[in-house]
Amino acid sequence: MKTSLLLSLLIVLLIACDFTKKEEEIQKRPSNQAFFSKSNIKLPQVVLDSIKSGDIVLRRGDGPLSFHLSNTTKEPFTHCGIIVKENQTLKVIHSLGGQVSQQEVDGVQITTLKHFVDYASDSLLYICRPIFIDSANYKVAKEAYKYLAKKTPFDHRFSMLSKDKLYCSELLYYVFKNINNDKNIFVIKKKHRAYMLMFSTFFNSKNFKRIYAISPTK
What is the pLDDT of residues 29-44, one digit of tens each? Predict the structure, then answer.
């Protein structure tokens, strides 16, 4: 009887110690642990651990504006941003119009990667790494912070003639040019009498390395 009681107490103590150990491990995990977004997209921990500041993230928005843009460009993605890491938290520097941004910021802004993914279509997300020059990640992130500090407003006219106002891919267009001796790497096509920066730019394996991708569902 005493032996059974002692054995039961030992089992309880072992379970308690194991539970405490797991709790401590959870508390030590960085804040960018694997998460489910509102869009039902899950970013696995192994992917989050591999992401670096300066990586690029593409999404397709879940609203009517994104649907219209995708119909115009004939591309699956409609928005992009630059990932940065702050105190182990993954964030995204991107440009949105005030009427679209949930943060009511008109132009270049910063948000968490989770918030960025929250507004993605369930079936589309793409993360890649710039490799077109040495130390591209560091240079891209540094340049992105410059535009964030300037609070560059959103380019509602979608004109590529000035750095004073920037739409989402235009921000990346100038960031890349600034660190690449003013050389353009973007695919540019004329659509409906306007020149557009194409997201197919990021599928060029000579300039970008794919980190993670969710393909469209069939």
Answer: 344 456 666 678 889 9
Do 9 and 101 sit in the same domain of this protein?
A: no
When divided into structural domains, the chain yields a total of 2
Give dist(CA 188, CA 19) in Å, integer. Answer: 56
Distance separating alpha carbons of residues 95 and 167, to the nearest angstrom: 6
Provide the pLDDT confidence category of residue 23 given band limits of 50, 70 and 90: very low
- Cβ burial of 96 (10 Å; 0-12, 13-18, 19+) is buried
Give pTM, 2 decimals.
Answer: 0.80
Spell out the SS3 assignment of the chain: CHHHHHHHHHHHHHHHHHHHHHHHHHHHCCCCCCEECCCCCEECHHHHHHCCCCCEEEEEECCHHHHHHHHHHCCCCCEEEEEEEECCEEEEEEEECCCCCCCCCCEEEEEEHHHHHHCEEEEEEEEEEECCCCCHHHHHHHHHHHHHHHCCCCCCCCCCCCCCCCCHHHHHHHHHHHHCCCCCCCEEEEECCEEEEEHHHHHCCCCEEEEEEECCCC
Greater confidence, 126 or 34? 126
Question: 12 with 104, same domain?
Answer: no
Give per-residue pLDDT as tens, 137-173. 999 999 999 999 999 999 988 888 888 999 999 999 9
- From CA 82, how far away is CA 61, in angstroms rounded? 16
Look up the domain containing 8 and give its range.
1-30
Q: Are residues 20 and 106 in the same domain?
A: no
